[in-house]
Specification:
3-stranded antiparallel β-sheet; elongated; alpha+beta; 19% strand; Ribosomal Protein L30, Chain: A; 3 strands
Length: 89
């Protein structure tokens, strides 16, 4: 019999379904604004926020935050209120 040890992340995924906030590219918001919002509300470092902004620009979307639905909902709402195009998946 093969025994599999779960990592902490795998165990948490079993216990609690994880969701993600997806940021979609738009032609309205500037890179600086998007970076500021990601740093302010998603707790990204400058480097993380810049990378997410670039990925979103070139791929049309990117995952900017993962967590439980209850933790992501208020973040997604404030990003929407600031004019970013996001959804929770």
């Amino acid at each position: 019999m093969i025994e599999k040890h779960l990592s902490k992340e795998e165990f948490q995924n079993i216990e609690t379904k994880l969701y993600k906030i997806v940021l979609f590219n738009d032609d309205v918001n500037t890179f600086d604004f998007v970076i500021d919002m990601l740093m302010r509300y998603c707790n990204h470092t400058l480097n993380q926020a810049e990378q997410c902004a670039l990925i979103t620009h070139y791929n049309g979307k990117s995952i900017v935050k993962k967590g439980t639905y209850d933790k992501l909902k208020p973040i997604a709402l404030v990003l929407l209120e600031h004019g970013l195009s996001v959804e929770i998946e």
